[in-house]
Amino acid sequence: MSIIYNSQTSTYVMWMHIDSSDYQEAKAGVATSATICGDYSYLGSSRPLGFESRDIGLFKVHILDDYESPAMYKSNGIYFMFGSSMTGKILLSTLLLWTTADIKTIGWNANDNVYSTATSLSGPWSGWNKFAAPGSNTYYSQTTAVVSINGVLMYMGDRWEPNNLMSSTYIWLPLTISGTTATMDNRNSWIINPSAGTWSPAPAETVTEAEAKTNTLTGSAIIVSCSGCSGYQAVGWLGGSGNGALKFPSIASSASTTTTIRIQQENGDTEQRYGNVTVNGVSNIVAFLPSRNGNTPGTSVLTVPLKKGSANVIKFEAYNGGYVADIDQLILPSS
Asked: How far apart are CA 301 and CA 261, in angstroms?
């Protein structure tokens, strides 16, 4: 789904993927609104120029401006088109002779995404180049959008989970363009300053294992095996009828500040679990999405105030009697 502003009609126009459960309808839908937040009036759907339409990107042309839209950006007179190794090459199939057999080989899964450049939208376009580390499958994602935030380019990628759509997530990473070259590194976290138009790497992080001997396990909580977890262990059987609970009694912070905690967790169910996570006595309800394959931990985040020193207490326990995800570790900024 993408939204673009029509300055001639003072209208926000939403384009979206319209499809059937078997993905055979393959149409582009359109809705309009006088405000960005809606309500939107649905106008209908069609196949543009008779072709199937699924993932959608928009590109709005201005004079003397930078340009950004899903999967396209213009910098210093150069157009950059970003896409997955399948959908991106379909866009220029007439130029690169991308075949149906090629498409079936790749499928809809994450892959090494690519980009092409040109000085005109009508081409000629360059050959395709990878912008993330080769073999990384673009850090397990496919291109959704490239946007500029006051000059900071940000890649937005979706992590498509076709067997469990609710566990599909996104990643946002800083993207670098120099001349006709685009590059992107993987980062667990990074800091953007929108007003200054700058970004910086996140500070060093402190990792605390859930199974550490300094932590307290009560009720049904036990240390369980987890082949994808750090140390191959996690703390499981939290919540539920056994009222399992896990307490981290001495989380350190270098200052009294609000910070974001990354919770590495493993949820082998097909639906999300919930947990009551108390931080220094303040309750927070946290959702834990299903893990990718049942043994690869996912990440939930919690932004909370911490006190200076090492006496911060974080406790995981049941929410409404349900089971919490298995907890692998907590990751906090060191400063």
From this structure: 6
